[in-house]
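ARCHIVE CARD
CATEGORY: sequence design from structure
SOURCE FIELD: tokenized fold
FIELD CONTENT:
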């Protein structure tokens, strides 16, 4: 695939093979295996965030009167190079990267090979007793390299970076399963016990350097300054034993009890084990109580469960020294870490209570599923800041209590069900309310991300998870702006502006079928979150947004009150207007926080199933062709974010610390064609 960025590319190949078989009398032995091999290769992937190596930066933030194509230069063989100097063609005084120089002179490439395999053998000792062993392997090898030539103005000596990683995850699992019916087959029992062993090995190395000896020869051996190769090997493991008991009475009342014990190698003995049980019950009401004829199925359910985990890196809770020879004498030394380690870290525990019901009506033409949950997470492993007087910066601790409560509701229906035509529809809704109940003693807030340009994503007591906190212009109780009478700038105050993770999620799917044709239309939406745009902040500082238009011809007069409440007025002349708007953009990042609500036409798939008899000569069992579209349209977004020209899904991070955006390539609409053959 080709990206929006010229001279870049992306390729992905996937091969799957699944094999199964049965042997012996009454299928005494069952064997199943599957393997998948992935190859993912990228060339000149675009960079997101701040200016360095970011081709989108200049395209967005150059003056409106600038034709970006002029940044290409006049040398057709070396885009982005100034033919007079042989260096990068500058486009502004601070030497921010030229987009053509980034696309054609800088280079990055990566290659990932991944093998995923799984095999199992099940021995049916008795009709109601079997033993099953499973082995799984996930092996990947990843390499990447990037270089900056000595034509770069930002890095004039040139730079090289390369790394390789090997990850190897192995799982072995054995289970014994027994089932039986008792008391005239009114009571069913299913028992399962098992053990699991997981081993993870990571081996990685990084090699960097600066200043090329010979131009246009990009190799680690061609560097004047080479950093020491940084290599590390990490091995972790988890041992587990588990069991499950399922009991049913006349196939309408069900009880399930589970228990699991894990031991994590990343934690120290005596603190590394955790047992977490669960219990769940369900009752099929429609099998016991006579309900109205329109209800053909009704089920009630409830459960209580605990889950444990360890989210620390190997060796991070014990004092670890690093060997270095970067000193005046070139002798190996051990570095003294600035992290105050805690060897008594325990696993995290999450406890969840759930309850809900499921109903099907009109011969299962309409279905409703409702679920409520309440989750408490304790002993999270975080590193809160500590006093500098200790000589340390921070240290991991078990702390805090986070609650999550919410609803999950789904509706499905089949308005039309005929031989040649059918229409199925489903709607999903979820709401989650998170709250930080407590952190460490004496700590009311922890920063989980610092966004470019000022805002922070915080966890603060009494607030939801991933709250966006930023400075805004200060106003008095009447809503009048407060000014500093010395500088003439607006005063500011820190405010919590919303959450980065949307609490409301919704999805609507329609599936229509006419004979061999089918059409799927998926719409999804998210509501209740906010996001900060560093792109619009910089565009405002550079005078590229409508907010910076006032005052360009006669100056700008600002009015309000000073900090004492007295009337304040100041004229910013045309000469000083640039300073005012630069301050306007940089000191109050909260004004660039937007509601990220949206409704999107996410996916459409039109497919045609080819009759099997048409391809019987090729021994094809089934075949279909299809046209797929992804991210096709934004059906709704907030007025402010639409006027700013932003996609509501502008956040760059993939973790829980949502709520910020840097400068990156715009999202794309993807159209694809597929052919599926089964032999």
């Amino acid at each position: 695939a080709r990206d929006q960025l010229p001279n870049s590319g992306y390729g992905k190949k996937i091969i799957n093979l699944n094999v199964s078989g049965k042997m012996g009398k009454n299928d005494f032995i069952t064997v199943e295996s599957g393997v998948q091999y992935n190859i993912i290769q990228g060339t000149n992937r675009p960079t997101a965030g701040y200016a360095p190596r970011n081709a989108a930066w200049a395209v967005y933030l150059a003056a409106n009167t600038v034709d970006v194509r002029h940044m290409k230069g006049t040398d057709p063989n070396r885009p982005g190079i100034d033919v007079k100097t042989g260096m990068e063609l500058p486009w502004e005084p601070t030497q921010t990267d030229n987009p053509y120089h980034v696309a054609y002179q800088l280079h990055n490439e990566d290659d990932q090979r991944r093998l995923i395999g799984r095999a199992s053998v099940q021995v049916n000792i008795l009709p109601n007793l079997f033993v099953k062993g499973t082995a799984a392997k996930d092996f990947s090898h990843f390499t990447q390299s990037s270089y900056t030539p000595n034509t770069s103005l930002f890095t004039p000596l040139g730079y090289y970076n390369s790394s390789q990683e090997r990850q190897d995850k192995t799982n072995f699992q054995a289970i014994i399963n027994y089932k039986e019916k008792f008391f005239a087959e009114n009571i069913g029992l299913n028992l399962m016990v098992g053990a699991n062993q997981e081993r993870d090995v990571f081996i990685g190395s990084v090699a960097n350097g600066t200043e090329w000896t010979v131009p246009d020869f990009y190799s680690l051996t061609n560097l004047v300054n080479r950093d020491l190769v940084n290599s590390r090997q990490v091995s972790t493991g988890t041992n587990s034993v588990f069991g499950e008991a399922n009991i049913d009475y006349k196939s309408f009342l069900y009880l399930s009890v589970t228990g699991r014990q894990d031991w994590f190698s990343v934690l120290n003995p005596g603190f590394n084990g955790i047992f977490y049980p669960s219990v769940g019950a369900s009752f099929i009401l429609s099998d016991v109580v006579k309900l109205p004829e329109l209800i053909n199925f009704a089920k009630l359910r409830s459960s209580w469960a605990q889950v444990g985990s360890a989210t620390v890196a190997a060796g991070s809770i014990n004092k670890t020294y690093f060997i270095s020879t970067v000193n005046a004498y070139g002798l190996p030394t051990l570095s003294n870490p600035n992290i105050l380690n805690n060897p008594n870290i325990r696993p995290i525990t999450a406890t969840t209570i759930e309850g809900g019901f499921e109903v099907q009506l009109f011969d299962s033409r309409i279905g409703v599923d409702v679920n409520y949950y309440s989750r408490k997470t304790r002993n999270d492993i975080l590193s809160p800041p500590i006093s500098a007087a200790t000589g340390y910066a921070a240290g991991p601790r078990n702390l805090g209590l986070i609650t999550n409560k919410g609803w999950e509701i789904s509706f499905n229906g089949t308005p039309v069900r005929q031989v040649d035509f059918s229409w199925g529809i489903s709607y999903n809704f979820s709401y989650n309310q998170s709250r930080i109940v407590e952190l460490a003693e004496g700590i009311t807030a922890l920063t989980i991300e610092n966004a470019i340009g000022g805002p922070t994503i915080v966890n603060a007591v009494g607030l939801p998870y991933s709250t966006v906190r930023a400075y805004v212009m200060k106003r008095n109780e009447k809503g009048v702006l407060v000014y500093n009478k010395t500088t003439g700038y607006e005063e500011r105050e820190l405010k919590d502006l919303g959450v980065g993770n949307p609490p409301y999620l919704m999805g609507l799917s329609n599936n229509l079928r006419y004979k061999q044709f089918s059409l799927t239309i998926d719409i999804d939406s998210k509501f209740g979150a906010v996001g900060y745009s560093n792109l619009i902040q910089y565009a405002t500082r550079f005078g590229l947004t409508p907010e910076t238009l006032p005052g360009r011809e006669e100056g700008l007069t600002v009015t309000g009150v000073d900090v004492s409440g007295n009337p304040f007025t100041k004229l910013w002349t045309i000469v000083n207007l640039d300073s005012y708007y630069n301050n306007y953009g940089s000191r109050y990042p909260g004004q660039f926080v937007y509601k990220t609500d949206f409704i999107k036409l996410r996916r459409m798939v039109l497919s045609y199933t080819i009759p099997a008899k048409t391809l019987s000569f090729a021994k094809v069992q089934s075949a279909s062709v299809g046209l797929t579209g992804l991210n096709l349209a934004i059906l709704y977004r907030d007025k402010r974010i639409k006027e700013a020209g932003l996609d509501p899904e502008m956040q760059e991070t993939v973790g829980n610390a949502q709520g910020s955006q840097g400068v990156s390539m715009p999202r794309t609409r993807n159209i694809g064609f597929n052919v599926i053959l089964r032999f």
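CARD ANNOTATION: Helices lie at 55-61, 99-104, 534-541, 577-586, 639-643. The chain has a mean pLDDT of 91.
SHELF: design records, drawer C
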